[in-house]
Amino acid sequence: MSAPRLEIDLDKIHHNARTLVELLADRGISVTGVTKATLGSPEIADALLRAGVSALGDSRIENIEAMRRARVPASMTLIRSPMPSQADRVVEHAEVSFNTELDVISKLSSAARDARRTHGIVLMVELGDLREGIMPGDLEATVREMLRLPNIALRGIGANLACRSGVSPDARNMSELTALAESIEATFGLSVDIVSGGNSANLDWALSDSDTGRINELRLGESILLGRETLHRRPIDGLYTDAMTLVAEVIESKVKPSQPWGDIAQTAFGEEPPAIDRGPVTQTILAIGRQDTDAAGLRSPPGIEILGASSDHLVTDSGRCRLSAGAEITFQLNYSALVRSMTSPFVAKVLKGQSAYLPVAAVTSTTRGFRPITDARACHRSSRNS
What we know:
- This protein has helices at about 10-25, 40-50, 60-70, 85-95, 100-115, 140-145, 170-190, 205, 220-225, 335-345; strands at about 5-10, 30-35, 55-60, 75-80, 95-100, 120-125, 150-160, 195-200, 215-220, 245-255, 280-285, 300, 305-310, 315, 330-335, 350.
- By secondary structure, the chain is an alpha/beta fold.
- Strands 1, 10, 11, 12, 13, 14, 15 and 16 form an eight-stranded mixed beta sheet that branches. An eight-stranded parallel β-barrel has the order 2-3-4-5-6-7-8-9, surrounded by seven helices.
């Protein structure tokens, strides 16, 4: 099998999605499955839909178009504010889009009128994270102007937290979003159907004893794919954290000094070389680098430590074991490493599993199934059986 590769276990993704859908349903909250980290994979989209997500969301219209071409049977939401230059494509392929600018909504209105359809709008509100959003004091005026546009329907309001500045969703900011929804309904005599509280960072709040108010939808991607909440990256009880893993192949393994020698300048990425002398190490190099993933976001198996990376090489210390060329090592990933690996054309994507529902009882720990293909304790095995 080719390497490097992402191994994607559809059964585990389905299990994670189904578990979160059921937990949040008890709180009156539906789930929009976010596909952006998977490049709109139809197979992963299918696993999410069968798990019970109410819609699919993506930040790139190109991914939504790919799912449409694959005939994925779902309502699609563009969760990044549309580019005006793509208004026609957004209206054609997405039922709903998240918006903050009246000029953009006007473009969508014109495109929807030409296409003889109505496009749904969720207005995003700024609640402190300082990414996208209308300031709360400007929301009423924005709604008033938007309602004058033809072929546009206000579907709801939403917020995004924790992405840019790390602001945590809590009772205060979620109550503010509830109050804004109720104010719009009272002022304009309409129904705000969607109150989208945020993303995977909202899970601690949503699954606590807090009053969820009018929040009735969350947009979940990382928590489903990687089994972790995103405020502190803690594993979520009952979810798999290894539904997606990265496999890389050894191309060199030699004992070398841990310190470089000669006149030292910056590395290729403008960094300083390591300052600590560890003595001789078993330096094992894998054929993957920063062009393919975020090395800082990889978690190596026991006995193997990541020392650094260049564009095309991942340098590790494999301890007392020299792995032979051709051996493979499996890494777990954080979100940054996953996104970069998924978008690299040099990383193969391999789907596993039957996409069948795995009962909660099948998960005995959050890391069940994380079996590194090679670790330092298995170095005596042949490279293909390791």
